[in-house]
Amino acid sequence: MKMSKQFPLNALRVFEAAARLMSFTRAGEELGLTQTAVSYQIKLLEDTIGEQLFLRRPRQVSLTEAGERLAPRIAEAFAIMGDALSTLHDASEGTLTIHSTATFASRWLARHLGTFQLENPGIAVRLETSQEMIDFSRSQADIAIRSGKDEWPGLRRHFLMRNHFTPMLSPDLAATIRGVKTPEDILKLRIIDPGDPWWPFWFAAAGVPDVDLSGRPVSRMGAQAFEAAAAIASQGVGILQPEFYADDIALGRLVQPFDILGYDGSDYWLVYPEARRNSKKIRAFRDFMRKTMPTFRD
C-alpha cells in the first residue's frame, strides 16, 4: 500500500476511538461527532488503505482481520503523540492535579502532600475531591485515587490499599448500653447510615446474616469522613475503614469493638491515562506513593 502524505489523520483518530469502544455511536459521543460523520471517516480510511476495517451489522460493529492488526498500532501511535505533547506541557506547567474521594483526601493525602512537595519543589499540587468517577478526557486531573474493583480499561492502575470496613463509635455512645460486646449490640444503637451497602457485608462476616435495617432513620452524608465526624460526636455507629481512624482510636475519640472486617471486593487505586505514564510529575507522585504507602503494588 502506498500511503499519501495527506493520509487522513482525523480518520485515524475516529478509527482508534471506534475500535476501542466497539461502537460508532459511542466514538461519536467521545469525539463530538455524529454517527454519520464517524461512518464517513471510517469509510474514508478504508478507501485510503484499500482494506475493510469493520464488519457492519445492525446495531453492532466488529473489527475485520485487517482492523485487528491496525487497531493496537494506531492506539500506540496516538499514545506516543499524547505523551510527547504532555512532556512539552510538563515543561511549561508544573501543576499536578489530583482527583480523590473526600475521605482519602482528608484522612491520608492531606497528611502526606506536604512531604511530597518538599521532595518535589518544582511541582505545585492542586487537589480536587468528589465521590464522582471522573472522565480524564473531560477533566483537568492528571491522576485520580479511586475506590472500586479495577475495571477501568485504558487506565494504568496501581493498588493502594484494601477497602475493608468495620463498625466504629464513640466511647460515650458505647457506654449508654454498657459497652458493645456482640455484633447484635450494635442494633440497640442508632446507625448513622443504615442504607450503606457495607452493613450487610459486615454483619454477614460477623455471623449475623439477613439483618434488616429497613425502617431506621436514613442520613446519607456523602462521604465516609463526614460519617466519622458524626460518630465522634456520638450521633450513632458508623461503618468505617479502620486505617483512616487509628489516631482517633488512640486518642479515645472512637472505639472499634470488633476485629471483624467486612469486604465488598473494592479497593483503593491510583489511576491515570496509559498515554501519560511517562509524565515527569505523574512519575514523581507514583514513586512517592510507592515509597510512602507500604501496601502499594504495581
UniProtKB/TrEMBL annotation:
<dbReference type="GO" id="GO:0003700">
    <property type="term" value="F:DNA-binding transcription factor activity"/>
</dbReference>
<dbReference type="InterPro" id="IPR036390">
    <property type="entry name" value="WH_DNA-bd_sf"/>
</dbReference>
<keyword id="KW-0804">Transcription</keyword>
<dbReference type="InterPro" id="IPR005119">
    <property type="entry name" value="LysR_subst-bd"/>
</dbReference>
<dbReference type="InterPro" id="IPR036388">
    <property type="entry name" value="WH-like_DNA-bd_sf"/>
</dbReference>
<dbReference type="Pfam" id="PF03466">
    <property type="entry name" value="LysR_substrate"/>
</dbReference>
<dbReference type="InterPro" id="IPR000847">
    <property type="entry name" value="LysR_HTH_N"/>
</dbReference>
<protein>
    <submittedName>
        <fullName>Positive regulator of gcv operon</fullName>
    </submittedName>
</protein>
<comment type="similarity">
    <text>Belongs to the LysR transcriptional regulatory family.</text>
</comment>
<dbReference type="InterPro" id="IPR058163">
    <property type="entry name" value="LysR-type_TF_proteobact-type"/>
</dbReference>
<dbReference type="Pfam" id="PF00126">
    <property type="entry name" value="HTH_1"/>
</dbReference>
<keyword id="KW-0238">DNA-binding</keyword>
<dbReference type="GO" id="GO:0043565">
    <property type="term" value="F:sequence-specific DNA binding"/>
</dbReference>
<feature type="domain" description="HTH lysR-type">
    <location>
        <begin position="7"/>
        <end position="64"/>
    </location>
</feature>
<keyword id="KW-0805">Transcription regulation</keyword>
<dbReference type="GO" id="GO:0006351">
    <property type="term" value="P:DNA-templated transcription"/>
</dbReference>
